[in-house]
Specification:
Length: 70
């Protein structure tokens, strides 16, 4: 189930994702998908911007990505 988040002064989407989901990698893209037009706003979102936060899996339960140099 999604919820609505109202921004405070000076907040950025990546910081909001870190606070709500525990990370930003992959979450920012999904939140932008759920909020058409949000990407057109400034990096520091205007105070009072309503953002739909979809129900996503928290970062702790996502397995770590293995890279070739690990």
């Amino acid at each position: 189930m999604s919820r609505i988040y109202t921004t405070h002064q000076g907040e950025a989407l990546d910081v909001i994702c870190r606070k709500i989901y525990g990370g930003e990698s992959g979450y920012v893209e999904q939140v932008l998908e759920a909020n058409p037009g949000l990407a057109a706003l400034l990096h520091r979102l205007p105070t009072g911007t309503k953002i739909k936060l979809p129900a996503l899996t928290r970062a702790e339960s996502i397995p770590a990505i293995i890279t070739l140099w690990d």
